[in-house]
């Protein structure tokens, strides 16, 4: 898989929230299709997921992952907000349980922010 760096797909940084490295396995499901990927980075709103077979933009999916050092499994629905074939998809959390949001906020607060394109 070719390296793709965050921000290259559009050339412009439009994020409103701090984004941090994550690098954990993730399971994504839509209907009867399940794919395994790797969450590359996270914010309080969503994730960038590295996968060779991303779902289509605007598709609602179910995701499952754990934060590093945690046994808590985060499960929620998400919406695919952008997709690059053979590379990655960006998802926005939908209906994220409060306990999971709290864990994500704590993880993000303790990690250094990723630097966007200048």
Summarize the structure.
The chain has 118 residues and is mainly beta.
- For this structure, what is the CATH class of the domain at 20-97? Mainly Beta
Number of helical runs? 1
- Percent of residues in helices comes to 10-25%
* Cα-atom radius of gyration: 13 Å
The helix/strand series, from N terminus to C terminus, equals: EEEEEEH
Question: Which characteristics define this entry?
Answer:
mainly beta, Thrombin, subunit H, six-stranded antiparallel beta barrel, 1 helix, globular, disordered N terminus
Explain what you see:
This protein has 118 residues and is mainly beta. The chain has a domain at 20-97: Thrombin, subunit H (Beta Barrel). The protein contains 1 helix and 6 strands; from the N terminus they run E-E-E-E-E-E-H. It has a 6-stranded antiparallel barrel with strand order 1-2-3-6-5-4. Strand 1 (20-30) and strand 2 (33-42) form a beta hairpin. The longest helix is centred in the C-terminal third of the chain and has 13 residues, at 98-110. It is globular and about 35 Å long.
